[in-house]
Amino acid sequence: MGDQLSFFELKEIDRKRTKEKVEAKLEKFRACLLTPELNSRPKITPNYSFDIPPTFSNAFHSSTEDAAIANADYVVERSHYIKRISMAVNRLKFKERAIIIRRYMSEDEVRDWEICNELHMSERTYRRIKSSAFYNLAFALNIVVYKEQEDKDHELCPAN
Predict the structure, then answer these.
(1) Total of domains in the chain
(2) Selection from 103, 81, 107 nearest residue 92 by Cα
(3) Cα–Cα distance list, 154 to 2, 7, 13, 150 (Å)
């Protein structure tokens, strides 16, 4: 058993792109919280167009129905997204969660140095914990970005 077979190899994480993805998700979360529910209104005026040929089918197509469906779909997607991010954040350690909630999930725009002062941390400790929180969130949300391996010479199961 001199040569043991590795069933998986840990790939190198692209830290910058992973951080960008997590921040984008958190910014979208804030936008979802601050955005009121969508209230699409049906069109009440007729729309005549020469570009669109008439359809002769038995299907009834109402702008009121379209608006109701769009509103319902938006509410479901929005609540699902908020729940997914909240559950991932709730799995973080206490300090990681405190940083993420204060920095990205509150209505106020809070700067990093303000959070350092509030949590009585040095800037170095704050950055280390925040970085750890980002990677834990990336794994929880399944949005980790890996670096492309230029070295594709080794195989998982080499032929003898």
Answers:
(1) 1
(2) 103
(3) 18, 13, 19, 11
Domain span holding position 127: 15-35+64-141
Which residue shows structure tokens 């469906």?
A: 69
Residue 158 within a domain = no
Domain of 73, CATH number, reads: 1.10.10
Return the sign of the alpha-carbon dihedral for residues 109, 85, 27, 13. positive
Q: pLDDT below 50 — which residues of the chain?
A: 1-2, 40, 149-160
Instruction: Note if the pTM is more than 0.85.
Output: no
Provide the 3-class DSSP secondary structure of residue 13.
strand
- The answer to the question of residue 128 being in a domain is yes
